[in-house]
Amino acid sequence: MKGSFRQSMAWLHTWSGLVFGWVLFAMFLTGTASYFRPEITRWMEPETGRPASYAQAAQGAVAYLTKTAPDAESWSITLPDERQATARLFWRPAPTPGEEAPRRRGRGDNRAVLDAATGEPVSPRDTRGGEFFYRVHFQMHYLPVLQGRWVAGLCAMFMLVAILSGVVTHKRIFKDFFTFRPRKAAQRSWLDAHNLTAVLALPFHLMITYTGLVTLMGLYMPWGVTANYKAPETYFEAMFPRAEEVERSGVAAPLANLPGVLETASEQWGGGRPWIVNVSNPGDASAVIEVTRHSGDQLAYAGGTLAFNGVTGQLISATPEPGPAVLTNRVMYGLHMGRFADPILRWVYFLCSLAGCAMVATGLVLWTVKRRAQLPDPDRPHFGFRLVERLNIGTIAGVPAGMAAMLWANRLLPVGMAGRAEWEVHSFFIAWSGMIAWACARPPRRAWVETLSAAAFLVAALPLVSAATTSRNLVSALLTGDWAMVAFDLTLLALGAALAFCALKAGAYRSAPKPRRRTRTEEAPA
Amino acid sequence: MILTAAFLMAYAGFAALCLSMTKHQVETVGRRLVPREQTLAKAGGAAGLGAAFACAVVAEGWRFGSVLWSGLIMLAALALTLLLAYRPRTAARIAAVSAYFAPLLIAAWALVTFIGA
Description:
The structure holds 2 protein chains of 2 kinds. By secondary structure, chain A is an alpha+beta fold. Chain A has 21 helices and 7 strands. Chain A has helices at residues 5-34, 37-44, 54-68, 130-139, 145-169, 186-200, 202-215, 217-220, 223-228, 232-239, 258-268, 324-337, 343-372, 383-396, 398-412, 420-441, 444-460, 462-469, 474-480, 483-510, 514-523, and strands spanning 74-78, 86-92, 111-115, 274-280, 288-293, 305-309, 315-318. In chain A, a hairpin with a 5-residue loop joins β6 (305-309) and β7 (315-318). In chain A, α1 (5-34) runs antiparallel to α4, α1 (5-34) packs across α5 and α19 packs antiparallel against α20 (483-510). The longest helix of chain A is centred in the N-terminal third of the chain and has 30 residues, at 5-34. Chain B is elongated, with a radius of gyration of 15 Å. In chain B, 44% of the residues are buried. Chain B has helices at 2-19, 22-29, 35-86, 88-115. The interface between A and B is medium-sized, with 26 and 24 residues.
């Protein structure tokens, strides 16, 4: 680690990138997929229908809840937006006399999923849907949630270290701004590819890493809260104020027209969309309707809540506008989540994020490419080199293969199977570790080609698997104009083609070792 | 329409900036540029990126527009660099076509928005 500032930064960049690179690659790729979380959920729940307006869904939800749980203590309705096909309901039953403080979360029988358009209950297969990719992206799996978040935070922190030290290390950011020389020596072109994906999308990488840390800053740096609030609860109350709990009056009164209330709320927000509706004491004269704004309406990831009289439908109160610090935090949160993005911007997010995956992957490959040239005997590398090489292959091909395997499991596991959702998740990790095992068992060059081909097949065959096992397929989606699902299948095909292209390139690379050696001697004096 | 114009402007802008660099001149236009042309290319590049920003803000407002612009220029630069590596001449031709069509698209958009409505 001796030497100039730039040399020590290069050292830091190399090793922070390598040690955390594999986890970071998985975090980046699952995070990339999370920009399409609702679409993935829709794909994984083929029993559900099409998105519909929130007003339509609200009407269905009220009708269902009035019939099913008329005397509940409260109802909670998560309305669909234009990307979701279901409304998710939850109700808290009235406490039976003698039972103290009801449990915060109800059991399965206090929940329902309704079709957004018809308001009829639907029972989608047991799956975690796009939620899994989102969760695993920042809290891992098979670990307690908080520990997983600490692991993610550590990785993100070193991602930030790697980005900043990388900027220092890269001597020719502006001179090489548009430079990519795929036909040059291996080390040169891998370095170019790494620089290209890193530098050109640098604003995105910096933003996403920094804001990612900010989303969990309360966990990593709790001292601001502990220094200013005696009990953590008072902090949460200040951050997320809730309406006072009102006692049931015992006087029956019909609930105000919910779609009308939602319209008033939307007007209050200048056309914003309602998202979560909470009704306390439904059917009682003391009923209160709280409407929370869609978190994707503004750059800031928080909408605020309006409270309405549940009988007359009149606005009672609104959560105060957040102060500058809270607003800053929420804008960062919003920038990270990208929920405000319209379809075009969402694709921009997705592509920039894919560039991030490519940056991590090319960085990992570069580590081995650089060192292979310096090995005393390139045919018999030492253990550390072999380990890195195999983990690279097993992860770069294994994570996409694992994600595809999860979608395969979603279609192939029996619908009534016990623990189905968990087994879908297991299949992600089984496929990933299978790829690592495969990479260890085969000679590296063959392993690259084989694992990438397998991943390409797993991804690209998904539209066919879906067509064979469910009523969802590309043709019917095209005929009914379900463009989200059309785009989903086409994206799978494109990603499969990209993986197949990588496999082809890896195959071609093997047959041309000669020029590599020649350029190595050329570059040696430099 | 106007977002397509924003992307084309960003692409043409980066292509002009790229053209102002000595190392990319021969591969894209076949000759070295004289200093005056280099200055022009630089100014044109900045103007292209600025015009892309204006388009994004007009389309999406200040907040979302600036986020969108950041994303669009990143993708435009990636597209240009990849194209430059394999088909430098084509990259330059596409830039010229973009610089030509983007103002037309903006004009068409303005016509539809201000007169059509």
